[in-house]
Amino acid sequence: MKAVVLNRHGTLDDLAYVEDFPDPQAVAGHVVIRVRATSFNYHDIFTVRGMPGIKVPLPLIIGLDMAGEILEVGSGVTAWKEGDRVLVNPLNRERGLMGEMMHGGLAEKCLVAEHQLIRMPRTVGFEDAAALPVAYGTAHRMIVTHDTIRKGDKVLVLGASGGVGTGCVLLAKMLGAEVIACAGGADKVERLRQLGADHVLDYKETDFSKWAIAKFGKPQRRSDDGGVDVVVNFTGGDTWLPTLKCVKRGGSILVCGATAGFDPKEDLRYIWSFELKVIGSNSFYDDNLKALLELIEQGKLKPVIDEVLPLRDAVRGLKLIEDRKVFGKVVICP
Description:
By secondary structure, the chain is α/β, with parallel strands linked by helices. The chain is built from 10 helices and 18 strands.
């Protein structure tokens, strides 16, 4: 089968497009799916580069997110049959992540454990489904499962133009929030405006914290006046301290990552003085993915997809992710 294979850690040049990779064979408790769509996450970049403490079995087909049709059913699998349309939860309970500890979605076929399968509604397309797991699943758990955003809340989203970010903007708007979306570059800012964000900021030109204080007032320690209700901050780094300064008393900071640095400058005085809540959220579960599929089926959600590329051009698509030139998701259709 055709596949994109990582033979050694390094750069994207170490990914190879091959046309003769061995086909997977169905084994007990598993199915083989025909991959119809897979989408990239920045995690794929980390896998290519190599991550301290994580020993990846090489050669490896990368790619966490995928959707497709069942081609072959292994022994012991009774709830599924050939032709069933499925979304795959990339977390295998026994072995870890697809595309990291076992072959992933950048191939024409993939071996998947039965417990990872989620049935797709007929009206949901493969490309939309494949955009969901890591990015939108993470956003859904952070916002919906943890019940962190209320109607009328002022919600500031950092890194709003990526997969998780666009998911947060859409979900926050769906819940009735007033959304301030921050991204780098005029094009991304304009696309966020078109996506429905109430306010858009180019962080390269505008200090988001100072803007929020000028717009909504300085947070007060003895009243609920000033500031924003929620900041979604999965960037960390030098955005952390400015985040603390613009959240209202009793407000929340939602954290699901640290793309700009996990060890930022801290000032604990803001945490206790303004009674701030820092809420961590990790990963996603089947209920998040099922809920997202239902929202798409109901016409309430449309994942943001920047480009759809053939498998042969997958490395070019991943380069767009690495260079942060993407708005939303890049989807590959093998």
